[in-house]
Amino acid sequence: MSEQLATADIDLIQRIIPHRYPFLLVDKVIDIDGTETATGIKNVTFNEPHFQGHFPGAPIMPGVTIVEAMAQTAAVMLGTSLGLADKNLLVYFMAIDKCKFRRKVVPGDVLKLSVKTLRGKLGGKVWRFSGVGSVEGEMAAEAEFTAMMDMPKEPEA
Hints:
Number of strands: 7
Helix content: 10-25%
CATH architecture: Roll
Structural class: alpha+beta
Strand order of the largest sheet: 1-2-3-5-6-7-4
């Protein structure tokens, strides 16, 4: 019998990370396996603001937003697994390495964001991840990234 993996719908995502339109770039996170792996889903639509200028007549999701979507998926994975909903979690990029883009992501695509923890520890602030963004099984982008989790201090009583 297989273990049921955690998921995060849009409501839980918004309770974990502060991003909102137009910069909330993940619609749901599935297959959350503790702090080890998770899969984000981004439904790419023509209504997104970056398509107005990137590029007129040939809309392509900017590569940096694909990497950001990977990072948001990783943050939701940690937030879900570590019970950080409603804790004002902030996550900051520290590094992006080995980043490559392999195919265009366009309106109508479903971008699957697979993330894996490379380094991190419970209670630690700095985590390192690898991520792959794919559409219909074809790699669109890959990167390794380091991020720092930060939560505002609790007010003293």
